[in-house]
Design goal:
Blueprint: E1 23-26, E2 31-34, E3 37-38, H1 39-45, H2 48-57, H3 63-75, H4 81-87, H5 96-109, H6 119-143, H7 158-167, H8 173-186, H9 193-202, H10 208-219, H11 227-237, H12 244-253, H13 271-287, H14 291-309, H15 319-329, H16 337-358
Helix pairs in contact: 2-16, 3-6, 5-6, 5-10, 6-7, 6-16, 7-8, 8-13, 8-16, 9-10, 9-16, 10-16, 11-15, 12-14, 13-14, 13-15
């Protein structure tokens, strides 16, 4: 067999597969930047619409540019009726992430520029996806309850409009602002599993909807975006448990995971988790639901102490750990929490698709084609001898 270099890094961790100018992480120092701007500064000064513009275009917009971009997002919210009519035929128990993954290609069918593959058309398709994914997520939540989807409100910004479509009531402005902040925090995160899936698919010259559908599928797993829903399940299951620290100790002793703890990149506390913890406590005080962030903090303290005893000082809370409390307090059902991740991350996915297709950064691969080392049966270059069924040994 030809000699190959076997990559020892499980899951490609630490393996550089392409260049990117979209975002950067310093896992040792807990730093996350979008297009050169630290996440803390964007959360303090920016909005999701402005952040999406930054990710897609590469620079912070002027007032006129942001106004035009925001208007484009509002105009693109309208979803063709046949999309909703299709969704009404689906089993009501279908998980929202499966619905979202199925709906993305249908949105592609509705895109008049689906087959147009130039940079400007791709940017317009990105705007349609950013605008419409929240609409279909909220629509499914209503459809599965036997309700009709609501029409978007052009007077509401991106986050507030989603809450309106989901809950049928105009949201509290402060709560909507907090959701907008969450969208900024989740908008991109370099080459995570879902972003890699998007880029790998479009590296074949597939269209953006194919790439995003793959990204949604990758995000649905509990080791990626699905972890926040698992965190909320964990918190609810602790109702009536007085010794939470003891529960943590026993769980770790059995070799089980504490959902929301640990990250593939960060060796310190996820910078997004720090911000989300502050939001969780503030929302808890505002709504009288302090039990969720408080319970999360008890788990955090106990888990960190246990990990330290085991010499695992680099296992810290990640973005999912406190986002679960935040979204629950906002009234977002647990099985929609990962969809909310997608509502934000579509901005980053789109930026990476544009970069993959049109090469903002140097050194990108024309086609992702990693190698694998074959470790199965090998009988030489001529292969194993095929034996008729009658001559094979019984199982």
């Amino acid at each position: 067999m030809a000699e190959t270099v076997r990559v020892k890094n499980i899951g490609l961790r630490g393996v550089v597969v392409a260049d990117t100018a979209v975002s950067f992480i310093d896992g040792e120092k807990g730093v996350l930047i979008y297009r050169g701007y630290r996440i803390e500064d964007l959360v303090k000064n920016s909005t999701f619409a402005e952040t999406a513009f930054l990710l897609l275009k590469g620079w912070l917009p002027s007032d006129r540019e942001l106004e035009a971009f925001s208007e484009d997002l509002v105009k693109a919210r309208e979803v063709p009726d046949f999309v909703f009519n299709s969704m009404k035929l689906w089993p009501r128990q279908t998980h929202p992430m499966d619905v979202l993954q199925a709906t993305v290609p249908i949105l592609g069918m509705a895109d008049p520029e689906l087959a147009v593959d130039n940079r400007d058309a791709l940017a317009r398709k990105a705007i349609r996806l950013i605008a419409r994914i929240p609409v279909v997520v909220a629509a499914w939540h209503r459809i599965r309850q036997g309700l009709e989807p609501l029409a978007s409100d052009p007077t509401l910004d991106h986050a507030a409009n989603f809450l309106w479509l989901l809950q049928g009531a105009k949201p509290d402005p402060e709560l909507a602002k907090d959701l907008d902040t969450c969208l900024v925090l989740h908008a991109d995160h370099t080459f995570n599993a879902s972003t890699f899936a998007c880029r790998e698919v479009v590296s074949t010259r597939a269209h953006i909807y194919a790439g995003v559908a793959a990204g949604v599928g990758a995000l649905s797993g509990e080791l990626h975006g699905g972890a926040n829903a698992r965190v909320m399940e964990m918190l609810k299951n602790l109702d009536g448990v007085e010794d939470i620290a003891g529960w943590v100790k026993d769980r770790l002793a059995r070799g089980e995971r504490i959902m929301g703890m640990g990250h593939a990149v960060y060796k310190t506390m996820d910078p997004r988790a720090i911000i989300l913890k502050e939001i969780a406590y503030r929302l808890g005080q505002k709504t009288g639901q302090t039990q969720w962030p408080e319970r999360t903090s008890v788990i955090e303290e106990a888990a960190l102490a246990e990990f330290a005893q085991r010499g695992k000082h680099d296992i810290k809370p990640n973005v999912d750990f406190f986002s679960a409390s935040v979204y629950h307090i906002m009234g977002i059902p647990g099985d929609l929490m990962t969809c909310l991740f997608a509502i934000s991350r579509i901005a980053g996915w789109s930026a990476h698709v544009i970069e993959e297709k049109f090469g903002e950064a140097q050194g990108k691969p024309a086609l992702y084609r990693p190698k694998a080392e074959y470790v199965g049966e090998y009988c030489g270059l001529l292969g194993c001898t095929y034996r008729p069924q009658a001559e094979r040994n019984p199982a």
